[in-house]
Amino acid sequence: MGTNAAGVVFIVSMVLALALTYRPLGDHMARVYTSRKHLRVERGIYRLVGVDPDAEQRWVVYARSVLAFSLVSILFLYLFQRVQNHLLLALGFPAVKPALAWNTAISFTTNTNWQAYSGESTMGHLVQMAGLGVQNFVSAAVGIAVVIALVRGFARKNTDQLGNFWVDLVRTIVRILLPICVLMAIVLIAGGAIQNFHGNRSVTTLTGGSQSITGGPVASQEAIKELGTNGGGFYNANSAHPFENPTTWTNWLEIYLLLAIGFSLPRTFGKMVGSTRQGLAIVAVMAVLALGSLGANEAFQALHHGTVPTAVGAAREGTETRFGVPDSALFATGTTLTSTGAVDSFHDSYTSLGGATLLFNMMLGEVAPGGTGSGLYGMLVLAVVTVFVAGLMIGRTPEYLGKKIGSREIKFASLYFLTTPTIVLVGTGVAMALPGERAGMLNSGAHGLSEVLYAFTSAGNNNGSAFAGITVNTDWYNTALGLAMAFGRFLPMIFVLGLAGSLARQQPVPATAGTLPTHRPQFAGMLVGVTVIIVALTYFPALALGPLAEGLH
Amino acid sequence: MSTTTMAQAPAPAPNPPAAPRRVSGGLLDPKMLWRSTPDALRKLDPRTLWHNPVMFIVEVGAVFTTVLAIRDESAFAWLIVVWLWLTVLFANLAEAVAEGRGKAQADALRRTKTDTVARRLASWQPGQTVDPALVEPVPAPRLAQGDLVVVEAGEFIPGDGDVVEGIASVDESAITGESAPVIRESGGDRSSVTGGTRVLSDQIIVRITQKPGESFIDRMIALVEGANRQKTPNEIALNILLSALTIIFLLAVATLQPLAIFSKAQLPGVPDTEALNGDGVTGIVMVSLLVCLIPTTIGALLSAIGIAGMDRLVQRNVLAMSGRAVEAAGDVNTLLLDKTGTITIGNREARAFIPVGGTSEQRLASAAQLSSLADETPEGRSIVVHAKSTYGLRERGPGELLHARFVPFTAQTRMSGVDLDAYGGDPARLVRKGAASAVINWARELGGVIPADLGETVDGISASGGTPLVVAESVEGTARVLGVIQLKDIVKSGMRERFDEMRRMGIRTVMITGDNPLTARSIAEEAGVDDFLAEATPEDKMALIKREQAGGKLVAMTGDGTNDAPALAQADVGVAMNTGTSAAKEAGNMVDLDSNPTKLIEIVEIGKQLLITRGALTTFSIANDIAKYFAIIPAMFAAIYPGLDKLNIMRLHSPESAILSAVIFNALVIVALIPLALRGVRYTPSSAAAMLRRNLYIYGVGGLVIPFIGIKLIDLVIQFIPGAR
């Protein structure tokens, strides 16, 4: 079987597997968030933390809980790294420097998992497991909790209660993430990923040389890294490292895991609002965007234009020979479309336009299917904006799922879609205006500009993948990107919860023949159009001076 | 409840709905553009323009580029400056033209506000004749609420109020534009009079109900002038969205500068251009890009669209008290329509005489005619007409019935008829017609036998939507039921098609009637309404509205009586008839000066059209940006990255001509769309999906394609101008 044919099988089987997961996983999640029963272990946790699991929260309280929890997480993670040399399993590493510790703490709490360090030479096992590993679970769960609150906003009426953040958080971890991760970690170990507590070991490499590599609890970290769209690798090489991602089929599994929840949540949404067709429309929009992006990326990779590919004569540089170009393009597309940021190939080495599609994927705002939870809420906010314009065009006060989209709703939606472009563009602009920060670029010209743009796009959209080619472990970048990640995560969450609050209060309008049908291809097509056009208009000038300048000859 | 209009033409039948109807407004008079220019210039004042954030930014940009052009002169710079100022001016012009149309109407209204001197009655009791000694002259503006004034033929009514005594014909043409006089009388639903209208005959005493300076005409002037125009909910939401888009483009353009400086510095050998030098993108080009990207088209036309929407209502003689009400009209889910006057032509008419108990038709017809000769109600007259046209019975004048005494209808007897004395061989005869139960009782009391087939006939008529009137006579003391007159409502032509349209738009129509459920059902079926409320009392109506609203629906209704006032106030869109009482007019949020209840349907369509126009132009405005990027980005950066010239797919002549063409297109499209903004986009009632498809094709795809063509055409012309060469 040729590489291309294998690539086709790889991709088609992926689409099929996700299609098969859509219903059972989506329905399972809907049950988790609508069930009235608490498991014994959950009750134990609630008692320990001191929350009443049956008390519901208004949007402000829900948002406060999200922020308080995340702030405590950041502080804890920061301190953990700062004192790691005094703790067990530190492997002799010193305390992490303040700017890097801050950056990393925010990065893992915001589900970004931007890594300005090399995991195997910076973090001990305890920090990896009890610090970063735990955040991999909870940051993913926070994203899902927020989208569930938004879905409740659509589903409920005449109430200001959006559910209980602590309950949503605990249930997500206990009933969804943990069971799948335990299973998948075992599968990954079977596939060859390592799981131990070794320190440095000398290993004979494939070429016969000897190399010292750190062992560690990798497989368990790997499962949640993908499932929770985190992307923070145990090793610097991330999923290109054979201990993290040994074979083609583990590569397939990792891509599947990072897409599974994102593509199934629309079903949960449909179930909870009482119309699975609405969920189907949303997942169709995500799928169209994802497949379109994948097609573009594969095509650009095959055409190979760009600094590196032109020099090497193929788009193979920076890709693992174990995986090949088509599979790597799928991984790269998946990881940038989902805010995961794990990589099994080096995006910096992609063709200029191939790299541009990866940038564009993130610029979409991580909505196709996006990060766990964050992808769906991003897409629903875009749906609200689309409904607004479409609703006006049919001569009615716009409504989505029976909820009117008035000035309050549009205010929150507008603030939401203003946030990331502001962070990305201002961050890039400032970095390019400061001579010292420009010096951090290892490439000149348009490619160098793309690297900075990529860094801020990745941080602002909580993706975490890097274009590399830029020295980011400096105080300035650590601080600036840390801020970009924090604002890029928590401001949108506040706006989403605000939107949820004002939706939940409404009495739904009954659907009539005059109501805009939001489950048909017409609306889905318009939503795709609005998403792409808004992003293209926002970033076109920056893209023109970066990858486009490089890629058009 | 009746919606009788005196001395006015009957409500015009709706246009034939077979051909798609089109809601449209007045056309734009090119002279209006010229006349509005001074107003447009006045609106350049930043304190005014501040309320329109998008255009305010354009003005700031225009000022900025003017300074730049003065400091560093070039033909290109000045051309851009001129067109940026024109962009702002065109936006102001759109608003000024829209307001101008209202102003003309307001001026006409103001002329009617002559300074009348009222004749106030110091003391007066109902029934008392007016004592000239107690009349004192008071200037109309100084009248207080509750004052009583006397108005005679030829005088202007000094303020809004209710007639408390007398009856008069009043010329209301100043308000309604209808020259035929109307009757105003004390009591009932036709007691309200409007200040500024003229009494043509007789004398009335009016109790003033308005507060000084808050007359109906004052409110009308304020409304058509848009003096206290407030942004409607959807307008506010759209403004937020447009502001957000503006901020995004502001960011995209502002943050481009460091990127441009960096890119230019990387390639030191490239010569400076008009667009890009060592300091980055020049201010002129930066502002040009920004102005082209921010949604200026919709930003410029948004307020004009709103004003024109209200204006379109005024042209149809509907006064909306707020823009909010007009918008709500577009959202209405349920229309409550009064049967009489809206669905059916005001009056019922006789359709058939059905004899019972073996009476001949001719005999029944003769009796029916006799009983109705003195009956001046429309029903009574229709019986006489039917007898003549179908049975050839000549109308008998009063002189021919010297020995007849007419018995008028009363609410107690629920019968009318005639008593004939024995004369010239004919025996004495009593003829009665009326409600079945009343006439049957009368016949029984006079010893008559009720024919077996009567009940069946009466029920049959009721079930078919008719009203049965039973005719009986008593000859020499022996009563006998002759038969039944079938009265029937006449459903207006074209109503069924209109209701079908409404259904497709997702609007449910409910017919309100005082008839019994059987009759109501039959008419409802004939007219094609979705539902009906029979034997409706004001309380029932109110309950129905509340029930619909509890389900999240928006309800519209018309009304004119005082007892409609609570329902009018409760409904989301309450249209009061101008003929109605002042309580009704006060309670509703719209007044129909023509008092035509069918207009509710048009109001809904205008409300929808208003929103569609906003949505369509927003889509158009955003879709335009794509072409502008393809014009401006290569013009800015192709000098340093020649590959970017591939984006110049329009093959524009030069970087300068490309940027200038985009700016000119951006300004001209505003002027080109002013007529559309004032007229509203085409609206044909259809399903949501069909409407969206149509508007997406025209304004979305059209908005994508048109600027590519427009910019190219402008470029073809201006490439010969120095400065763009």
UniProtKB/TrEMBL annotation, chain A:
Q: Give a yes or no for keyword Nucleotide-binding in this entry.
A: no
Superkingdom of this entry's organism?
Bacteria
Q: Which InterPro entries match?
A: KdpA
Look up keyword Cell membrane and say if it applies: yes
Compartments in which it is found: Cell membrane
Membrane topology, as annotated, equals:
Multi-pass membrane protein
Q: Give the main localization category.
A: membrane
Q: GO molecular function of the protein, one example?
A: P-type potassium transmembrane transporter activity
Q: Locate the transmembrane regions by residue number.
A: 59-80, 87-106, 126-151, 172-194, 249-266, 278-296, 376-394, 415-434, 480-503, 523-544
Q: Listed GO cellular component terms? A: plasma membrane
UniProt keywords, alphabetically: Cell membrane, Hydrolase, Ion transport, Membrane, Potassium, Potassium transport, Transmembrane, Transmembrane helix, Transport
Q: How does the record describe its quaternary structure?
A: The system is composed of three essential subunits: KdpA, KdpB and KdpC.
Function comment: Part of the high-affinity ATP-driven potassium transport (or Kdp) system, which catalyzes the hydrolysis of ATP coupled with the electrogenic transport of potassium into the cytoplasm. This subunit binds the extracellular potassium ions and delivers the ions to the membrane domain of KdpB through an intramembrane tunnel.
Q: Give the protein family.
A: Belongs to the KdpA family.
Name of the protein in question: Potassium-transporting ATPase potassium-binding subunit
List the source organism: Frankia torreyi
Q: Give the organism's phylogenetic lineage.
A: Bacteria, Bacillati, Actinomycetota, Actinomycetes, Frankiales
UniProtKB/TrEMBL annotation, chain B:
An example GO CC term for this entry is: plasma membrane
Recorded hits in Pfam families, A to Z, give: E1-E2_ATPase, Hydrolase
- For the ligand (Mg(2+)), the binding residues are 560, 564
| Record-linked InterPro entries | ATPase_P-typ_cyto_dom_N, ATPase_P-typ_P_site, ATPase_P-typ_TM_dom_sf, ATPase_P-typ_transduc_dom_A_sf, ATPase_P-type_domA, HAD-like_sf, HAD_sf, P-type_ATPase_bsu_IA
Q: Residues in domain P-type ATPase A?
A: 136-225
Instruction: Name the SUPFAM superfamilies for this protein.
Output: Calcium ATPase, transduction domain A, Calcium ATPase, transmembrane domain M, HAD-like
Q: What is its EC number?
A: 7.2.2.6
| Catalytic residue list | 338
In terms of domain of life, where is this protein from? Answer: Bacteria
Any idea which GO molecular function terms this record carries? ATP binding; ATP hydrolysis activity; magnesium ion binding; P-type potassium transmembrane transporter activity
Topology in the membrane?
Multi-pass membrane protein
Q: Does the keyword tRNA processing apply?
A: no
Q: Where is this region: Disordered?
A: 1-23
Q: Where located? A: Cell membrane
Keyword set for this entry? ATP-binding, Cell membrane, Hydrolase, Ion transport, Magnesium, Membrane, Metal-binding, Nucleotide-binding, Phosphoprotein, Potassium, Potassium transport, Translocase, Transmembrane, Transmembrane helix, Transport
Enzyme group, top EC level?
Answer: translocase
Stretches that traverse the bilayer:
49-70, 76-94, 236-261, 281-307, 626-644, 659-678, 698-721
- Give residues annotated as binding ATP: 375, 379, 409-416, 433
Quaternary state and partners of this protein? The system is composed of three essential subunits: KdpA, KdpB and KdpC.
Protein name per the record: Potassium-transporting ATPase ATP-binding subunit
- Organism equals Frankia torreyi
Q: Which gene encodes it?
A: kdpB
